[in-house]
């Protein structure tokens, strides 16, 4: 799209030509972009400076976080390049052609337990890495989990799908200063995935990512989210109370007690008692690669 080409004198962006839109969020549109010289494809997050006015620090923060975690783990999107023009900021990522986990769950209805466990194990491994880097992601959800290739969606590649999943969107991430026992208090995230302590404003940190993993796992297993309510107020109350059930029964009858136990530990209301990423990886549901069976009734 020619109209998207920056008009400034900066020559760097002209090394890319943008194409179709891959996705969009509050401040950004993500477009496919081709590097003209090499013919290589990338995903270019285009952020309108005017829309971001007064919040430029958010993009600077996103870049700082990406510099810390990108390339350090195979399941985290890689920031390839960034630059700006008069009107826009551009973050250029390696292209994930496989789309969002969100769309894959919707297409399948839900995941088989064994495949869900493989995905969650991989994502948690990447979360553990992010946390070890001193970063809390704060916006983990299936829309921000991408797949590197389209092929991983094919049935015959089911056992390989997990290797392909990538954590994206560090727009709400924070670098934590551990020595100060720093806590965050601003309310942010996507309501259905937000931990109780975020709403309570009692201070939050890495445990919010584990809560989100609990919500994502629940979603993978049954095809809907645990705290979905008619209004945001009711949703928030349900989250604060930890009010969810493995119901209706017909969606959960094939899900093992071990899987349910994993979801429940991630959805521990008290963030101090919630498992860390490495503790969650030790849970029997993830620790053994053998499938878990539902007891015969
Ligand atoms: P926002 O902060 O606006 O949510 P994201 O970084 O999550 O921005 O990007 C928005 C959407 O763009 C994602 O949900 C995804 O569909 C798409 N997208 C982002 N990064 C990539 C990428 N590297 N490859 C392919 N698609 C991407
Ligand atoms: Mg996003």
From TrEMBL:
Residues 16-286 form the Protein kinase domain. GO terms for molecular function: ATP binding; protein kinase activity. Transmembrane segments: none annotated. Residues 4-13 have a biased composition (Polar residues). ATP binds at residue 45. It comes from the Eukaryota. Keywords: ATP-binding, Kinase, Nucleotide-binding, Transferase. This is Pkinase-domain-containing protein. The lineage of its organism: Eukaryota, Fungi, Dikarya, Basidiomycota, Agaricomycotina.
């Amino acid at each position: 799209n020619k109209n998207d080409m920056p008009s400034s004198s900066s020559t760097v962006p002209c090394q890319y030509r943008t194409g179709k839109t891959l996705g969009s969020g509050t401040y950004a549109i993500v477009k496919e972009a081709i590097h003209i010289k090499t013919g290589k494809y990338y995903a270019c997050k285009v952020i309108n400076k005017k829309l971001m006015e007064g919040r430029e620090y958010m993009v600077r923060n996103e870049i700082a976080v990406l510099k810390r975690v990108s390339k350090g783990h195979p399941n985290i999107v890689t920031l390839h390049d960034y630059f700006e023009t008069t009107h826009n900021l551009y973050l250029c990522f390696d292209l994930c052609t496989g789309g969002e986990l969100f769309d894959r769950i919707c297409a399948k209805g839900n995941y088989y337990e064994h495949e869900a466990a493989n995905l969650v194990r991989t994502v948690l491994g990447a979360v553990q890495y992010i946390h070890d880097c001193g970063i809390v992601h704060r916006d983990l959800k299936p829309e921000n989990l991408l797949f590197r290739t389209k092929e991983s969606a094919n049935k015959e590649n089911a056992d390989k799908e997990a290797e392909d999943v990538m954590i994206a969107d560090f727009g709400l991430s924070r670098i934590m200063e551990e020595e100060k026992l720093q806590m965050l208090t601003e309310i942010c995230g996507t309501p259905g995935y937000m931990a109780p302590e975020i709403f309570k404003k009692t201070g939050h940190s890495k445990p919010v990512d584990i809560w989100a993993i609990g919500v994502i796992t629940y979603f993978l297993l049954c095809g809907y989210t645990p705290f979905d309510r008619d209004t945001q107020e009711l949703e928030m109350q349900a989250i604060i109370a930890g009010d969810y059930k493995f119901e209706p029964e017909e969606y959960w009858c094939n899900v093992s007690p071990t899987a349910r136990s994993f979801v429940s530990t991630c959805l521990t209301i008290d963030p101090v008692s919630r498992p860390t990423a490495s503790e969650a990886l030790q849970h029997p549901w993830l620790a053994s690669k053998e499938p878990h069976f539902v007891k015969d009734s």
